[in-house]
């Protein structure tokens, strides 16, 4: 559900609402709000069908895609690249891409070109032929849906063709990065066989002083850079918290919905009320098991409900819910709620499961046993198992184990499972739950906005931010440094406002996901290039700590070298083995840093390949610790084989480079274009 930005109620001029609303303008090319909102709605619906959509991310990606589309159209026009509707239709019909073939198939699951042409040329005839019993009104509605789908398909297909032709023309001036290609060749063709002894760095280090961190940063300044300008905000947070009156009003409103449903005389009326109710929040299907599970409040509320009824309002911590009872299933011992310990099917299965059951009988906690033995994550709330869901043997074990007991292990396919039976239920309720969080009322929002406006006016009037914060009972907070690629306080709008506001000036008020409405001031601005200490202090601390932990064991590493030698036959001999030393013989070290049975250490791999010799190396400091390496065999990619690599892998490598360079080209177009973003009037993002 798209939620309009609440600030529009106070800030958007009413005279503009009578015009066709605009989402933005790219180099004079208008992005209309209605078309943009439809695209956002489709994306959110698709994302919700595959999980949970994070609306600000969806809105931002839709905006970036639409801006890129307008930039591509403009650049194509400038270069004289055009595609007529007739040409696009001809290609679509005679050379359809695979994704269209997969979507237009006959009863045998094969691509049906006649069906595609029918959809494009005569959608009404198609609807009548496929559904001869439809009424004229239903035919009209179905035909309109097909027309809209084909219009969207044509538009997207045409945009793809235009992008491809622009990229092909642009690629005529593209120059392959031979250095990057050679690096890829070395990574794929270089090999090293070695014995590896690793001594990990210390696990902790004393906290550094500010001076130590600054010295480390000064000695490694070229490491800390940013390809984009960065900014930091000082801000005051004004949360949009609903009042008790707001929550009471929402509860009354939903109560009225429930009562109107109960009074509705026809099924159509009830369906209409349910549709209105569903738009108020998130709807989900649930199975209610007992009063003890996480949906216990729902289960208790439906105790006397019948199929088809709705029950509510049901209050929870941050909002209110209504449930519609879809069906009820009753019967003796029809379902159980269990937790599981999943064990591998190996020779130790029997002894392991016996030890686990003995420990559980001796009052060991199930959580500790699950953490120690189970191959799957925690299921603290349990899962519901119904009769008929399991194979016969698993069902016999699950429903034959007493409540509160731990079952023996039963083979469940790739593994074996032990079940802790938490409880059983003679009644299951299948419902649709419609849930909405409590929201502040218009009056509450207006009150918060007045305070934000007053705070910003005081700052712009010359009052220090500290004095403004004290007057409104707020604390000045600082964001981390950020560039223009990521949201700030969960808000892309605040990021955009920060980069369109000059240093020390106040940004327009923005409602954020994590801090309510913020009154923000641009506190710092850093150009692209080397970063000052303040802009990278977190990264400096992390790097300093990693380096210090290894430095603390430098003397131990030197001692390690004293008791590792090679025999005359080139075998590594270890005369003493500290407890935390790890030894792996005859392993491989890839050019990219992967070390079989050890992990990944890029720094060590670069050192070994740079020395390019057989024999004992070390002690060597890597990213993860200190190493002694007995190189048995090492081979760098031979220059004479490079042409063969280019022949076999060249086309893919060239394409990867071209695609990356074209994406950089589009970014440069964005950076040099005039883009007016008006989304904030309508969306919270």
Figure out the total of helices.
Answer: 23
Strand-residue proportion: 15-25%
Structural class call reads alpha+beta
| Overall 3D form | globular
* Overall residue-averaged pLDDT value: 79
Would you mind describing this structure in some detail?
The protein is an alpha+beta fold. Strands 6, 7, 8, 9, 10 and 11 form a 6-stranded antiparallel beta sheet that branches. Strands 18-3-22-21 form a 4-stranded antiparallel beta sheet. Strands 12-5-14-13 form a 4-stranded antiparallel beta sheet. Helix 7 (123-130) crosses helix 8 and helix 11 (244-263) packs antiparallel against helix 12 (267-278). The radius of gyration is 33 Å and the shape is globular.
Secondary structure layout:
Blueprint: H1 8-11, E1 22-26, E2 29-32, H2 33-49, H3 55-78, H4 85-94, H5 98-103, H6 113-121, H7 123-130, H8 136-171, H9 178-189, E3 191-200, H10 210-219, E4 225-226, E5 230-238, H11 244-263, H12 267-278, E6 282-288, H13 296-301, E7 310-316, E8 319-344, H14 349-361, H15 366-373, E9 383-386, H16 392-400, E10 410-411, E11 415-437, H17 442-460, H18 465-471, E12 477-478, H19 492-499, E13 510-512, E14 516-526, E15 529-530, H20 537-551, H21 554-562, E16 564-566, E17 572-574, E18 582-588, E19 594-595, E20 599-600, H22 602-611, E21 615-621, E22 625-635, H23 642-671, E23 675-677
